[in-house]
């Protein structure tokens, strides 16, 4: 039945944790394979609940569905509730529950036991009138080659965003009036389905590639693919004998190359407003910048190279972090040994380590430094902007090795919440407890598709249940130091560089360049200070690279001291390609043909 109908059926609401920071138990969390413990009966509250189902005659089909059901409440009528959930201050309210084998016309109950964000439970919802919407985020069953069977949301071309994922069911938004103190059940029908996403079209300069990876297919037990957006240099067709350096721009999933625009800005574009940069018409600024890159790229003086954006969205996140891991499989080897050789052969790249480079910001900053570290002979330099934590002593505001709790400081008498997101003035908008609850609401077993969970999926060993071993309990903040030790030995980049410098140093000399703002919103500059201290102290050999900071610059400052962050973040190729060309001229092996691509 379409729409929402209140009924007289009721259920007990259970308060999981009255206060994330001070009211939660700090006892050792159960192993990952155990279900989340139920809240005590004493915490039971009112009986507000939602019964969510999908119709048997709808587009969902006749089979059963595994996944996670979300119920979203919003007091903002500017958009659908499913598009209004974020970690920021302007988020609306969301609750989530897992479902397995949910059949058509059967209810998934979202009641007081459901985990919520930012309010913890349904009992915490203020009485009032809201727009409500439900979403069913589908999971797929994977029978991995390591013997584990797991249920995860496969990416379907959207880059792991549940609110946009094709095949997900959702309901027509409806107005309801709720009072959590009164027993009431609202019935919601998932009467809509998100349609497939069309593949982008090729142009003269931009090509789109997708290959099946044998390595990843074997690991995941089903066909797995890698994709790439390729920007070809000006003159590619008219210089058939030229061979080019390859530059990988690491970063988040892109459906297409958004920062390269062959057409001028849209004259009918309705200006928006950037909350982050406090700029009106920022969408036009982005289009102008993208068109300027096209003009620069095709101009007479721009370095002629191949630029690649890799698509490696996976069941945990919008990219794999470009390394091998227990939970994601051999993504590093698949990219290096399957995708890159395929691209270099098809598009006439030089195909040697001295002519291969990487850059990126944030996730891409970490990935760039990681691939240079783990594949030191495969790259001749990286430019890493605002990288994710490169030293886990400063995992944002948490010291994973020495701190006992990720949510609050360890002092006996006074517990101060640890921040997760701030602005350049130091004004806090989210704590570590907030982010943890947000991701727990979006998915148990590390299935939120968000930031903490992808770090955990990449860096952690697999648990007995096949899911990543948690680095900390998302309700209590208690850190698992055994997991932290595994992280240190396998993915703490500063630790690995220091540990292995005798062998890595000679291969990395002159290749490492790191940039970050000293007021990074995620405190990422703190870990960069540590890696800078190590790198500047190297003598055998010296690292001969660069670490630079932007004064009062936020995330993601990339080394440009001439422009505000809002503009410099749109100019990575113009900033780094000249540096890459200079590196080639200084370090290319004797006899290398540098003339074929310098026209």
From TrEMBL:
It comes from the Bacteria. It holds the Pfam family Esterase. Coiled coil: none annotated. This is Esterase. The lineage of its organism: Bacteria, Pseudomonadati, Myxococcota, Myxococcia, Myxococcales.
């Amino acid at each position: 039945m379409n729409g929402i109908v209140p009924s007289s059926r009721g259920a007990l609401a259970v308060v999981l944790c009255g206060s994330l920071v001070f009211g939660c138990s700090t006892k050792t969390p159960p192993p990952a394979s155990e279900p989340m413990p139920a809240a005590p009966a004493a915490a039971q509250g009112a009986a507000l609940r939602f019964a969510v189902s999908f119709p048997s005659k709808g587009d969902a089909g006749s089979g059963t569905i595994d996944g996670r059901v979300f119920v979203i409440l919003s007091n903002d009528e500017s958009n659908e509730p499913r598009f209004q959930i974020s970690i920021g201050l302007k988020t609306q309210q969301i609750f989530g529950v897992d479902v397995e084998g949910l059949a058509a016309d059967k209810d998934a109950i979202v009641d007081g036991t459901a985990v919520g964000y930012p309010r913890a439970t349904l009992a915490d919802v203020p009485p009032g009138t809201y727009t409500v919407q439900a979403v069913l985020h589908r999971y797929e069953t994977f029978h991995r080659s390591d013997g584990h069977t797991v249920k995860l949301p496969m990416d379907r071309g959207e880059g792991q965003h549940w609110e946009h994922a094709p095949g997900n069911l959702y309901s027509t938004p409806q107005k309801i009036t709720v009072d959590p103190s009164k027993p009431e059940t609202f019935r919601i029908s998932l009467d809509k389905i998100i349609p497939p996403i069309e593949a982008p079209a090729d142009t003269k300069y931009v090509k789109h590639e997708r290959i099946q990876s044998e390595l990843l297919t074997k690991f995941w037990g089903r066909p797995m693919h890698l994709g790439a957006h390729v920007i070809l240099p000006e003159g590619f067709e008219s210089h058939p004998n030229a061979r080019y350096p390859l530059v990988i721009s690491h970063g988040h999933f892109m459906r297409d190359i958004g920062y390269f625009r062959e057409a001028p800005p849209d004259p009918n574009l309705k200006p928006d407003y950037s909350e982050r940069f406090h700029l009106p018409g920022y969408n036009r600024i982005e289009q102008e910048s993208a068109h300027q890159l096209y003009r620069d790229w095709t101009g007479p003086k721009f370095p002629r190279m191949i630029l690649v954006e890799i698509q490696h969205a996976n069941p945990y996140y919008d990219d794999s972090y470009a390394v091998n891991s227990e939970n994601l499989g051999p993504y590093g080897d698949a990219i290096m040994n399957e995708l890159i050789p395929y691209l270099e052969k098809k598009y006439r790249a030089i195909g040697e380590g001295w002519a291969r480079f990487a850059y990126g910001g944030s996730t891409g900053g970490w990935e760039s430094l990681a691939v240079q570290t783990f594949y030191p002979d495969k790259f001749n330099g990286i430019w890493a902007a605002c990288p994710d934590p490169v030293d886990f002593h400063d995992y944002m505001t948490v010291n994973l090795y020495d701190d006992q709790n990720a949510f609050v400081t360890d002092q006996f008498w006074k517990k101060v919440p640890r921040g997760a997101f701030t602005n350049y003035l130091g004004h806090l908008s989210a704590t570590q407890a907030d982010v943890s609850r947000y991701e727990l609401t979006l998915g148990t077993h590390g299935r939120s598709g968000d930031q903490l969970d992808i770090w955990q999926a990449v860096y952690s060993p697999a648990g007995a249940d096949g899911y990543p071993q948690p680095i900390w309990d998302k309700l209590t903040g208690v850190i698992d130091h055994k997991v932290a030790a595994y992280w240190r030995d396998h993915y703490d980049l500063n630790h690995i560089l220091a540990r292995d410098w005798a062998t890595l140093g000679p291969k990395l000399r002159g290749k490492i360049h790191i940039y970050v703002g000293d007021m990074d919103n995620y405190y990422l500059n703190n870990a960069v200070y540590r890696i800078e201290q190590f790198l500047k102290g190297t003598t055998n050999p010296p690292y001969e690279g660069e670490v630079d900071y932007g004064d009062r610059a936020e995330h993601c400052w990339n080394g440009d001291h001439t422009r505000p962050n809002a503009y410099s973040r749109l100019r990575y190729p113009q900033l780094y390609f000249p540096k890459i060309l200079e590196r080639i001229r200084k370090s290319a092996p004797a006899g290398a043909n540098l003339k074929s691509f310098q026209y």
